């Protein structure tokens, strides 16, 4: 324990701009360097692997010259749900409400949207079966689905003070099992010949595509980012959320209704995650099947934290992490590395971002220990 | 074996990993460090323990490796939160996310010659019947016809309780978690204590994972822990930070697993997914009940400094 | 006297800086055996920092510490941890006690001590502690939990803890701040007895009377520098005050007789529990009238906190009513109290009064963000919020780089001015709506330097003269006597009596604070 040098941390009153920018960038680079070591140990050439990730996520120059943008468009497809879950997590985390349940809320949004697509035309045949009626309806119902699922931990926290970390995690499991039960049981496609999944949605419930597999969902996600930015920076609600997050006691003192704001925030947070369930079912799978709960809710936590809970940055970070996923899939195909390496990298990036943050918050000083004047006796 | 005995036996068997993980987390949290990485440490413990057992042909080697890996991951959390003062909640989550990803990666690589571990059969802990004790009606077969890791708990839990309640290091540990300023002023090394018990908690989470892959399942499958790490975190609150009560909670959850097995064995018509929800719903229900109960008793259990970083020279 | 006694400890040229603060600047201090040496200075003068250096909590940037033996010969020492300090016979009783509330008296006393066996034997420790407490006549319940015993008892535990470790140099930081005048006298007697046994006592204080009666010598710190070390016999209160502050100090405050109006805040038969679920207010009844300052005297922890919370809607009332200007607000949410014109300067600035990491502008808008021009429907006008804060910063002389600076970075005095500015402004809106404002100020001058204290007091008097009903809670009896129109004394959650300052004495207040007298 007695090193000749002593490292002390001194709280910064103000971090210089350059530090604020440089620290996350360097953190990510260090994380990637660390990842390279892991790859090398696993018997893969790290440089080749990173190259594969890049081309897998963004395509290659020759492909671009041929007007082939499939890779980038796939990355954008993966970005959409990450923006929405990142926003969902950011809204809650800004209040220091630890909503780890975006995954389950996303799933519930998807389940609710699927119900509308699969059964509403039969239940109320009078509703005009067009995109313009059905898509908004599905979106609203999906938001409601996510919000309802988020309201359980919200009420438990607001009125009974039950720890939200545990309840939101547990509800993820319950939501995923419920949805698996539905598409393998009562909602299973009778003509699916044993294929686990619901029937295909009618075409008037499909989100229109912009290009490639990129749908209108991208526009929805970007609009949601703008709305969340407006809420954070330019509404009384945003002010109250920040106050609650920084000092709940001061918020109460300022007259903020604690229970009320927890509920509003979780409706917002769960609703955003539920919207991601809508873009994934109505936009990509067009049925309820395996693949809705692939961890977007958890990646949303990384997106939100790396982006420092700022909506603009969430869009950027969601795109970058999505590139890591899509590129990671490429690794699996071309180098035989497991796709889960992508999830590992993301966890690593979060760990390094967390560790690197010390340089933003503190001035790190290395000082010689005082000369060892003997303390006798 | 009658019904009660068999349910109790499975409850003990299924609850063992929860006891390891939650008693470890109790020690960590008593020092003031909240480590939400239990799930990640547990699953890493499970995969590395199984890989080491397969490679060495010895299950004990597996437990040692699993425990050490859990402890090393806990040290990452310790470094981030104690030394660098990162947010404890987010750091723990990051550990769980990274651990889950790394574990499934390793699961496809750590078999002999880089082969996947999935589906492989390896050494395991088998039940050892203790003569005499196992003849006691009902509890005999339930408690004394188990594997060595379960028996180890008969030692670990009382020791953890004794350490906390009756020894000098326990007194220091409680002081650090309740009031680090005071502990520091009294000459206790707050950093050292926090590092130590965060490490111990990680080791125990790793061993918990090892019990899953070397005795309970046994073997390695993706997502082997299935949220048990999180249930262990919930059990800490259930146990009001007392290792003895963690046992009761773990038996309750193990019991739910046992009932689940019984129903499936008897060919119930209840779908498996709904049965599998039971432990998660039970966790929420138990948490609600305990929180209500605790708020009546004004929360004497939670260490006062839980989740807060400590820095001697920081002026607020 | 002690001029010839050997030197117990000497500090030479101690310098310690914190980000943005020079806390100690080349400070010298020498303390002899058998002497009570007062360390006098304002808040922020560097007294606590200096003692934290001596006890190993802080590392000095420069300077030397020397310890003397029985013959007075000095040797330099390095103290890098509290353990080193204890090993050298230095014991400290902190102002905020270093005790673990969930552990027993005996457990606290052996905490961190060398030579404690691995398996604890609390029975023998309790016997040892009981013997020690008998020897020094400091009774403590050895097996009780800290949270169960009184503040006075906790302080005795702290002193015993140091003595149990064989302390020869005993440092006490503001030991009388939380005690009644009578208890303070007991502590002084204890210190005298300890000095009589040859121990060196360092006694940190900012109270002149106390220093004059208890200490042998006094060292005065100002702005981190040692400005004088003098024998108490060779100086007087007036001279010490000047040394401490660096200028003449007003010991009185101008206050007109005022026009006392009708009752605005009425607390009637209120029963409320504290956070631990114990009844903290027992059938408490108080009235505050427009245009008066009602002072609340009492030892901390006798219901003051709960009183402010009940009066602002932050704590539920189990029985009784809280009425503001005729409107029954019992158990209504805090926002209703704000609307009714109740302002609140809380005791814990960064705990409740401010969100330290948010910009000052956000903090100053905590009561204004719901009303135009800052609010526009559900929207928030950031530009107007900054302008509003800028205006208050100027009018109330808050020293800050600007409204975007995090509130945490301001000095305590400027944080307090920002809170006062916000609360007083909220009061003027109440007046515009035709309501009589109430201002509840809990320990508003605690931890501030003399200049800031004068500012705060002036503002409170101004509010009173403008017709606001002011409830002032303080632990400084001098302040209450100077400021209040009437003083209510709290003990054990009950009002022991309400008296006019002119018709009472400090001694009488002390007896009421101790619960030994009612009026």
Characteristics of this structure?
heterotrimer; A: 377 residues; mainly alpha; ABC transporter involved in vitamin B12 uptake, BtuC; two-stranded antiparallel ribbon; 15 helices; globular; disordered C terminus; C: alpha/beta; Rossmann fold; 2 domains; six-stranded mixed beta sheet; 33% helix; 26% strand
Task: Describe the fold and architecture.
The complex is a heterotrimer of chains A (377), B (316) and C (519). Chain A is mainly α and 377 residues long. Chain A has 15 helices and four strands. In chain A, the strands form two sheets. A two-stranded antiparallel sheet of chain A has the order 1-4. In chain A, strands 2-3 form a two-stranded antiparallel ribbon. In chain A, strand 2 and strand 3 form a beta hairpin. Chain A is globular. The C terminus of chain A is likely disordered. In chain B, helix 1 crosses helix 6. Chain B has twelve helices and two strands. In chain B, strands 1-2 form a two-stranded antiparallel sheet. Chain B is mainly α and 316 residues long. Chain B is globular and about 60 Å long. With 519 residues, chain C is of the alpha/beta class. Chain C has 17 helices and 22 strands. The longest helix of chain C has 21 residues. Chain C is globular and about 75 Å long. Chain C has two domains: 239 residues, P-loop containing nucleotide triphosphate hydrolases (Rossmann fold); 251 residues, Rossmann fold, CATH 3.40.50.300. The chains are: A mainly alpha (377), B mainly alpha (316), C alpha/beta (519). Chains in contact: A-B, A-C, B-C.
Under CATH at level 1, the class of one domain in chain A stands as: Mainly Alpha
CATH superfamily of the largest domain in chain C: P-loop containing nucleotide triphosphate hydrolases
Mean pLDDT of chain C: 90
Elements of chain A, N to C (H/E): EHHHHHHHEEHHHHHHHHE
In the CATH hierarchy, the architecture of one domain in chain A is Orthogonal Bundle
């Amino acid at each position: 324990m007695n090193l000749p040098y002593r490292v002390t941390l001194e709280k910064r009153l103000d971090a210089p701009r350059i530090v604020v920018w440089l620290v996350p960038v360097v953190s990510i680079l260090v994380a990637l360097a660390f990842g390279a070591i892991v790859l090398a140990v696993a018997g893969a050439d790290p440089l080749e692997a990173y190259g594969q990730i890049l081309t897998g996520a963004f395509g290659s120059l020759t492909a671009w010259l041929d007007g082939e943008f499939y890779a980038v468009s796939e990355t954008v497809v993966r970005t959409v749900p990450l923006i929405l879950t990142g926003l969902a997590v950011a809204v809650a985390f800004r209040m220091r409400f630890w909503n780890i349940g975006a995954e389950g809320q996303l799933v519930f949004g998807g389940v609710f949207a699927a119900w509308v697509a699969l059964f509403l035309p039969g239940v109320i045949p009078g509703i005009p079966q067009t995109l313009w009626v059905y898509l908004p309806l599905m979106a609203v119902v999906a938001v409601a689905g996510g919000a309802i699922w988020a309201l359980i931990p919200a009420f438990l926290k607001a009125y009974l003070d039950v720890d939200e970390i545990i309840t939101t995690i547990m509800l993820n499991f319950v939501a995923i099992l419920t949805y698996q039960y539905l598409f393998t049981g009562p909602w299973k496609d009778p003509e699916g010949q044993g294929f686990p999944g619901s029937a295909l949605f009618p075409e008037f419930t499909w989100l229109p595509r912009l290009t490639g597999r990129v749908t209108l969902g991208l526009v929805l996600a970007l609009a949601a980012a703008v709305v969340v930015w407006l809420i954070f920076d330019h509404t009384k609600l945003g002010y109250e959320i920040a106050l609650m997050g920084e000092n709940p006691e001061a918020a109460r003192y300022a007259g903020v209704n604690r229970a009320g704001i927890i509920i509003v925030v979780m409706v917002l947070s769960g609703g955003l995650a539920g919207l991601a369930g809508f873009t994934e079912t109505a936009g990509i799978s067009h049925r309820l099947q395996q693949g809705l709960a692939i961890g977007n809710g958890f990646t949303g936590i990384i997106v939100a934290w790396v982006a420092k809970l700022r909506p603009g940055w969430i869009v950027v970070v969601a795109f970058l992490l999505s590139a890591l996923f899509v590129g990671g899939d490429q690794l699996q195909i071309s180098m035989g590395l497991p796709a889960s390496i992508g999830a590992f990298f993301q966890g690593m990036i979060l760990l390094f971002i967390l560790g690197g943050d010390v340089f933003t918050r503190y001035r790190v000083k290395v000082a010689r220990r005082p000369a060892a004047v003997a303390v006798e006796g | 074996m009658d019904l009660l005995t068999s349910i109790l036996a499975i409850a003990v068997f299924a609850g063992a990993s929860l006891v390891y993980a939650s008693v470890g987390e109790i020690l960590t949290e008593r020092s003031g460090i909240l480590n939400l990485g239990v799930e990640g440490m547990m699953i890493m413990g499970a995969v590395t323990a199984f890989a080491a057992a397969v490679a060495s042909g010895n299950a004990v080697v597996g437990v040692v490796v699993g425990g050490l890996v859990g402890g090393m991951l806990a040290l990452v959390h310790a470094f981030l939160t104690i030394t660098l003062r990162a947010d404890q909640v987010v750091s723990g989550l990051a550990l769980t996310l990274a651990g889950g990803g790394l574990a499934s990666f390793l699961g496809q690589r750590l078999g002999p010659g880089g082969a996947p571990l999935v589906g492989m059969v390896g050494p395991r802990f088998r039940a050892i019947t203790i003569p005499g004790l196992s003849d006691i009606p009902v509890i005999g077969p339930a408690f004394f016809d188990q594997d060595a890791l379960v028996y180890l708990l008969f030692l670990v839990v009382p020791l953890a309780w004794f350490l906390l309640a009756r020894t000098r290091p326990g007194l220091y540990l409680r002081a650090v978690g309740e009031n680090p300023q005071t502990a520091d002023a009294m000459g206790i090394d707050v950093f050292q204590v926090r590092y130590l018990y965060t490490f111990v908690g990680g080791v125990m989470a790793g061993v918990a994972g090892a019990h899953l892959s070397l005795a309970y399942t046994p073997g390695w499958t993706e997502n082997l822990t299935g949220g048990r790490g999180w249930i262990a975190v919930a059990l800490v609150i259930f146990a009001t930070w007392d290792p003895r009560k963690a046992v009761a909670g773990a038996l309750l959850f193990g019991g739910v697993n046992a009932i689940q097995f019984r129903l499936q064995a008897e060919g119930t018509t209840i779908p498996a997914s709904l049965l599998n929800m039971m432990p998660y719903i039970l966790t929420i229900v138990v948490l609600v009940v305990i929180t209500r109960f605790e708020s009546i008793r004004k929360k004497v259990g939670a260490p006062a400094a839980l989740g807060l970083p400590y820095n001697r020279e920081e002026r607020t | 006297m002690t001029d010839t006694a050997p030197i117990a400890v000497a500090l030479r040229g101690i310098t310690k800086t914190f980000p943005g603060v020079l806390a100690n600047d080349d400070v010298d201090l020498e303390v002899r055996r058998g002497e009570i040496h007062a360390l006098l200075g304002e808040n922020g003068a560097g007294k606590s920092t200096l003692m934290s250096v001596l006890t190993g909590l802080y590392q000095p940037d420069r300077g030397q510490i020397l310890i003397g033996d029985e013959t007075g010969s000095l040797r330099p020492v390095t103290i890098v941890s509290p353990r080193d300090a204890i090993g050298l016979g230095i014991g400290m009783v902190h102002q905020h006690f270093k005790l673990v509330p969930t552990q027993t008296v005996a457990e606290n006393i052996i905490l961190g001590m060398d030579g404690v066996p691995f398996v604890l034997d609390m029975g023998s420790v309790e016997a040892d502690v009981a013997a020690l407490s008998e020897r020094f006549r400091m009774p403590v319940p050895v097996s009780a939990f800290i949270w169960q015993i009184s503040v006075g008892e906790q302080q005795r535990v702290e002193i015993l803890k140091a003595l149990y470790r064989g302390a020869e140099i005993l440092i006490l930081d503001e030991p009388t701040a939380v005690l009644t005048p009578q208890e303070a006298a007991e502590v002084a007697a204890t210190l005298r007895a300890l000095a009589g046994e040859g121990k060196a006592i360092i006694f940190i204080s900012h109270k002149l009377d106390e220093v004059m009666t208890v200490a042998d010598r006094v060292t005065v710190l100002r702005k981190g520098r040692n400005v004088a070390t003098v024998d108490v016999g060779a100086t007087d209160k007036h001279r010490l005050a000047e040394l401490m502050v660096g200028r003449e100090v007003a010991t009185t405050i101008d206050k007109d007789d005022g026009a006392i109006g009708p009752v605005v805040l009425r607390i009637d038969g209120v029963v409320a529990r504290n956070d631990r679920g114990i009844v903290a207010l027992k059938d408490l009844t108080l009235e505050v009238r427009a245009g008066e300052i009602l002072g609340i005297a009492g030892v901390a922890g006798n219901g003051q906190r709960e009183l402010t919370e009940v009066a602002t809607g932050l704590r539920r009332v189990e029985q009784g009513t809280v009425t503001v200007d005729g409107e029954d607000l019992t158990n209504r949410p805090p926002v209703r109290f704000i609307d009714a014109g109740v302002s609140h300067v809380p005791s814990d600035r960064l705990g409740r009064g401010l969100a330290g990491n948010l910009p000052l502008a956000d903090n100053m808008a905590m009561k204004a963000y719901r009303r135009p021009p800052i609010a526009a429907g559900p929207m928030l006008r950031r530009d107007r919020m900054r302008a509003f804060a800028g205006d208050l910063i100027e009018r109330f002389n808050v020293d800050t780089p600007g409204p975007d600076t995090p509130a945490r970075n301001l000095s305590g005095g400027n944080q307090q001015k920002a809170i006062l500015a916000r609360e007083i402004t909220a009061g003027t809106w109440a007046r515009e709506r035709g309501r009589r404002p109430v201002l509840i100020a809990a320990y508003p001058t605690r931890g501030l330097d003399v200049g800031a204290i004068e500012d705060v007091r002036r503002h409170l008097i101004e509010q009173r003269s403008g017709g606001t009903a002011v409830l002032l809670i303080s632990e400084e009896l001098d302040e209450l006597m100077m400021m209040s129109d009437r003083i209510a004394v709290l003990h054990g959650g009950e009002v022991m009596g309400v008296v006019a300052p002119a018709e009472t004495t400090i001694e009488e207040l002390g007896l009421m604070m101790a619960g030994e007298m009612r009026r």
